[in-house]
Amino acid sequence: MPVGNDNMRKLYHFHGGIHPPSNKTQSTRATIARAPLPAKLVIPLHQHAGETAKPVARVGERVLKGQLIGMPDGIVSSAVHASTSGTITAIDMQLIAHPSGLPNLCATLIPDGEEEWVPRKAIDYRDHSPAGLQHLLRMAGVVGLGGAAFPSDLKLSLDRHKITTLVLNGAECEPYITCDDMLMRERAAEIVQGAEMLRFMLDAEEVLIGIEDNKPEAIASMRAAVAAGGHRRMEVIAVPTVYPGGGAKQLIRVLTGIEVAAGVRSTDKGVQCFNVATAYTVHRAFAHGEPLLSRIVTITGNVLHPRNYEVLIGTPIAELVALGGALPDTDSYIMGGPMMGFPLPSVQVPLVKATNCIIASSKKIFPPPPPVMPCIRCTRCADVCPADLQPQDLFWFAQSREFGRAQAFNLFDCIECGACSYVCPSHIPLVQYYRFAKSEIHAREHDKQLADKARVRHDYREQRIEREKQEKADKLAAREKAAQAARLAGAQPLTAQQQAEQAELETSRAHIRELAQSAVEHADEGTTK
Amino acid sequence: MLSALLVMSAIAAVLGAVLGFAAIKFHTEGNPLVDKIDDVLPQTQCGQCSYPGCKPYATAIAAGEADINRCPPGGEEGIRKLAELLGVEFKPFGEDAVPKAKSLAVIDESTCIGCTLCIQACPVDAIAGAAKQMHTVIASECTGCELCVAPCPVDCISMQVIGEKIANWKWKYPVYAMTATT
């Protein structure tokens, strides 16, 4: 039920957008429940954008709840923790939730059921410097919970731009997903306090919390929390329900009117954006000293009891599916929403920080797509593209592998929201083409970098060999020159006595040579015999 | 008549001076085409093209002495880029030059005797070690050229194919059946 625009603020529009059936009410009837402790946790060491965390726990070691098991490795990386107390039984390659269906490094943890915590240290963020808080977030494994799982500490670096506006993203525009909605309804005060911490770290002036107007309960709850906490210059704003209104650039456009152009970041314009669940996690990290060990996940779709659960990271998805009670005609499971999610390679893969929703899929809910027909260049995709691109052109370039031209048409501004595929009358899987083109371009750029590096190393080697040759030649020349000089110098003033000595030396040298020669011949004879 | 002659020779002198100045001022070192071709080549320095490295091969192509389909590590993509750059037809690989899966050299460290022959063979200094010390390949620098394999007297270097991992996984080209409207 949309609420009227009771905001005090003028809102803006972004280009395009669609209105798919929201299917959110099924999973918002019951409150968030805590999922029971599973018999086994598989905790991937790569749950965030960037480098895989380095395992720091040993196999067989007993770990406590919240203990660091993966150390951030590299600048873009984040920590990984034991979600409960128990024993690490393996650190090996296991199947994870990834569209490739390939395995990655995971730690297997058998819980002991005691939930014994490591010592937790709550801090008052006002006593710390933003840089110190940033480090704490990195070590608490806090990453963006909206879906991209980008390490949050990196988004809080202040060295480049003055941030004036902090946007908190509670839009949750994708159908079926309700984890942020329920979190805002039930834990608004903590989200708002987390927002205050983020504002402190960014030194931002105002906080704008954008929530789509199909979540009136969440809006009311968040407004009450802001009022009760006495937060100044913090505003909860109902935004129109349009998919993909929860895209960071789209929400920033709607709330502030700022259009973040191609190749520009919102921080260049003084705006930084965080998901509401990330703000909640930041609050848990500072005010309770708890690293990111669990998150809210929606289990919905073809299940008996669609609901939101607070689930430990590393819980097999199968456990969550069992809680939902998947119906017998379920044929696959989607992680994420129906627009941007991907089918899981197996229901045994573990839940990760980026898992916001699991949809049990059946032919009834998601009928197989109708046959694909040729593109007729109707440009309906261009009408709905929220990034203001020309999807029909991008499709054409990707299809014919003209990656340079695809890039020239700003392929990398595509947020892969799927609005184009949704409206395509020919049912062309457009986003698949864009993903294909993007990963090909990334691979090529990577190869090019490697080639450039190899060229530099090869050139250095050539130079070094040349230099060594030159040095050797110079040394030889110098020695020869010295010898010649000595000969010239010694030629004239030889006295009779010296000449006699020289002759004696020469004869003894000849004698030695003769001896040596005969010894060699002797040895040769010896060997032939 | 005389004034016309003077004017013309004055113009010629000025233009000549300008051209002479430009020739010195905007002088390009080496052949720019060679650099452009070299830029396309994969820099494995493997010599599979029968030239002793990528730059010599680029020089030969620029001089019209070598075909553009002699570089297996560059793949068909590389031939296509060269064809585009040089304005010639695409030419498939011959039977003697077939691209292989990208691989890395791996030294069996228990067998290595520390002879340094592979270090001398490596065109990109990707092998670390010293005489009578165990050697090892710096994986991030190895181009997979295989030049270190032959010199090893104890055959302890093998080429291992880099398989598909999450880190290098790519979205595939969409494949589906199409129907024509009737």
Automatic annotation (TrEMBL), chain B:
Q: Which InterPro entries match?
A: 4Fe-4S_dom (IPR007202), 4Fe4S_Fe-S-bd (IPR017896), 4Fe4S_Fe_S_CS (IPR017900), Elect_transpt_cplx_RnfB/RsxB (IPR010207), RnfB/RsxB_Proteobac (IPR016463), RnfB_subfamily (IPR050294)
Q: Which residues form the 4Fe-4S domain?
A: 29-88
What GO terms fall under cellular component here? plasma membrane
Q: How is the cofactor bound?
A: Binds 3 [4Fe-4S] clusters.
Query: Which residues does the annotation say bind [4Fe-4S] cluster 1?
Result: C46, C49, C54, C71
| Localization per Swiss-Prot or TrEMBL | Cell inner membrane
Q: Where does [4Fe-4S] cluster 3 bind?
A: C122, C142, C145, C148
According to the UniProt record, what class of enzyme is this?
Answer: translocase
Q: Which GO terms describe its molecular function?
A: 4 iron, 4 sulfur cluster binding; electron transfer activity; metal ion binding
Q: State its cofactor.
A: [4Fe-4S] cluster
Note the Gene3D superfamilies from the entry.
3.30.70.20, Electron transport complex subunit B, putative Fe-S cluster
**Annotated spans, Hydrophobic:** 1-23
The record's note on quaternary structure and interaction partners says: The complex is composed of six subunits: RnfA, RnfB, RnfC, RnfD, RnfE and RnfG.
Function, in words: Part of a membrane-bound complex that couples electron transfer with translocation of ions across the membrane.
Give the protein's recorded name: Ion-translocating oxidoreductase complex subunit B
Q: Which gene encodes it?
A: rnfB
